[in-house]
Amino acid sequence: MKTWTLAEIERAVRRSWGADTCAPEDRPAWHPGNPARGQCGVTALVLNDLLGGDLVRGEVHADGRRTDFHWWNRLAGVEIDLTREQFTAGEVVVPATVVARQPKLKRLVTEYELLRGRVHRALREA
User: Is residue 119 part of a domain?
Assistant: First the structure.
């Protein structure tokens, strides 16, 4: 079985994002100029599928209040956040905690499956 570099995986992930893989609550803010918007949860899960490691979650704050959660990965102690550029001025991610992956997704199932399939296809074609 072929192994991919993190750079190859990142390229495949970024090419695979779309409005249909974005979290529904972020779709109004999603656009091709900010394709990472709303992709953090599904991206972190796909990266976890491919590389293992920890899922990390932090709160997103704007104007002093929590507005959302942000997800990324920790691999061998290194933070990997492929969607870090999604935030607008005034949005701040506060320190995070490691979160156990649930055996069954409760939300974003369709978005996750779409992204996972696209990333796997892109990696096979790489």
Answer: yes
